[in-house]
Amino acid sequence: MKLKTLSIITVAGVLSLAGCANPDVYSGDVYSGRTAKQAQTVTYGTIVSTRPVTIQAGEENPNLIGTVGGGVVGGMLGSQVGGGSGRSLATAAGAIAGAMVGSRAEDKINQVNAVELEIRTDSGEHLVVVQKADRTWQPGQRVRMIGSGSNMSVAPL
User: Fold this and answer.
1) Angstrom distance (rounded) from CA 80 to CA 117
2) Are 112 and 23 within 8 A, CB to CB?
3) pTM to 2 decimals?
4) If pLDDT is split at 50, 70 and 90, which confidence band does 17 have?
5) Rounded to whole angstroms, how far apart are CA atoms 93 and 157?
6) Taking all residues of the chain, what is their mean pLDDT, rounded to a whole number?
7) Cα(58)–Cα(112) distance, rounded to whole angstroms?
8) How many CB atoms sit inside 10 A of residue 113's CB?
9) Which residues are 114's β-sheet partners?
10) Nearest to 67 by CA among 111, 106, 94, 112
11) d(CA 68, CA 60)
């Protein structure tokens, strides 16, 4: 019984840590370690349109913690039901259901509210940048874009 309690506590702790992922990396105000102290290109422009979007974070190990943790907890709970072959079936069903619930929960935990900014640069080029929705943006607002390619953030003037 102590082993089961310890296992549940361990899995709950691991699942809690999954929710501690830092969603601020998607903010226009946060620089990664590799871009700090690096020269960045600055371009100026005007916001043409904005649209609320969602960033699905956690793509490095998609749903690994939620799926495994949910499967373990579901299997442990299922093993408390019935006896004999019924217990084995309940354990398997609990593990499958727990894995599905854990995977879905991790998906939701890893979502970040974001904004898609369409910007017309002063040179006439149109760009789209997606970043965390941590401030209000308005069409017609002047902005500066810092960086280039896959490493660009937008800041107000």
Assistant:
1) 52
2) yes
3) 0.56
4) very low
5) 56
6) 75
7) 10
8) 13
9) 53, 132
10) 106
11) 16
pLDDT single digits (tens) 35-76: 666 778 899 999 999 999 988 776 555 556 656 666 677 667
> What are the pLDDT digits (tens) for 101-134?
766 666 666 678 899 999 999 999 999 999 989 8
Going by the DSSP 8-state scheme, the letter that residue 74 receives in this structure is H
From first CA to last CA, the distance across the chain in angstroms is 61
Structure tokens at 53: 């979007």
Tokens of residue 56, six digits: 């699905």
80/32 Cα distance (integer angstroms): 46
Instruction: Check: CB of residue 112 under 8 Å from CB of residue 131.
Output: no
Question: Hey, what amino acid is at 91?
Answer: T
CA pair distance 106, 134, nearest whole angstrom: 22
